[in-house]
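Suppose you are handed only these lines of text.
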Amino acid sequence: MSKRQEQYDVIIIGAGFTGVTAARELSHKGFRTLILEARDRLGGRTWHDRRLGIDLEMGGTWVHWFQPYVWAEIGRYGLDVVPSPVPNKLYWIADGKRHEGKPDEFFLKIDGPNQRLLEPARRCFPLPYIPLSSEEIHDIDQSTLKEKLAELQLSDEEHDMMDSMWSLNFNSPLDEAGFSQALHWAALSDYNWKLMMDICSSYKLTKGTKTLIECIFNDAKTDILFSSPVKRVNKIDSGYKAITYAGDEYTAKAVINTLPVNILNSITFSPPLSAEKTMACTEKQSSKGVKFWAKIKGVTEPFAAFAPSRYPIHYAQFEYVQGADGIIVGFGADAEKLDPNNRTEVESALRHLLPDIKVLESCGHNWVNDPFSGETWTMKKKGQLTSYLSALQEPEEGIFIGGSSYANGWAGFIDGAIESAYAVSRLVCSYLNNEFATGSAVKE
Ligand SMILES: Cc1cc2nc3c(=O)[nH]c(=O)nc-3n(C[C@H](O)[C@H](O)[C@H](O)COP(=O)(O)OP(=O)(O)OC[C@H]3O[C@@H](n4cnc5c(N)ncnc54)[C@H](O)[C@@H]3O)c2cc1C
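From them, the structure of the protein bound to flavin-adenine dinucleotide can be written out as follows.
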């Protein structure tokens, strides 16, 4: 077992968008930073990888100008976005039947139900980036989306269509989905649910999320160690010691932990993290679905397809033409019900929606079983916004938590990761300036 001793101002655990952006922010202020990353690559839950013969996003993908933090970074580094193909046709399953039509037909049918569902959004989130600013949010946060849909007394057809749309957004069935989360997304989208759908799945970085994280990383003056999962963080006289599974030890005055909330307890802190932080991790969030890619024979026209969450695939959309074939991306609400790397499983799940489809190859990554993520994109269960968000954001002396899971705005998105990196970097900077005023690299 090797042991090394280094002294840093800040150790950042994780090289996803949060960790890398925090390293840039703090190193630009003159602080000496070290990123310890468990994987052998940058990006965390974004992963632009060569699959099915082209470069595909296995995790986070779509960005939008209504997401101010990521959009600023895209502009800062002069990157471009491209739209995903606009579907000409939509297929959906509702009330036990397969339907097909123009996309407008589907969206018109759920416009009324969505207007009624999201009516409290403006009152609950008058300032979407200050998510706990209203009184009403505390009551509303006690309901699941499933309960709220039941109150709307929808027809079976409308209910299935709403279930399809919202289980896609939650990447989970709706029985645990926190209603406040749906209202928050709508509020962030100017209280307009159709705009919300556009924001979430329309524009992607032309050369992939990898280009953006590499720009941020190359701009940071930071040390980084890959394949270095952190096991423990102990308080010591000079600050903190991070100990990896390999037994290497690194010390710093402060630590930023960017682990997703579902795996927050996978590192042992001494002294331990607060009871609320531990509890938030133990409860887990609702995000337990799966994303897949499939190469499909002979289809080159853009389409999209929706099914309720009881089906193993609840959404698919056409993305690329590859010769005479097409490549589609899709999602299921429960990673246990679909192995994205099993071609026949993906094909038979898709055939509920598209009976003649022939899948040539498929791929995906199980983020829920991955010990370094434990979830897909953060989506809160009922009660978690009001019970845990403030506690999760609260530093504990020199230990800071940052990550998309802990953002005020677009939590669960790349935007949220960058927002949280800015916020946590500000806190760390002020902590180091106050606590270590005579230190070597302390800057305003
Ligand atoms: C399938 C999927 C689809 C998504 N789609 C979108 C989308 O279209 N648009 C969008 O904006 N967002 C999307 N997201 C969400 C987005 O990818 C994330 O919100 C964002 O990338 C999170 O960044 P982060 O830095 O907060 O966390 P992460 O990226 O999870 O970074 C945490 C890092 O910590 C590392 N780590 C974990 N444990 C340890 C340890 N013990 N020691 C050291 N390192 C450790 C991990 O390897 C990881 O690199 C999607 C996510 C998934 C999974």
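What can we learn from it? The two ends are 39 Å apart (CA to CA). The pocket of flavin-adenine dinucleotide is lined by residues 13-19, 36-39, 44-46, 59-63, 229-230, 258-260, 266-267, 291, 367, 372-373, 376-377, 403-404, 412-417 (CB under 6 Å).
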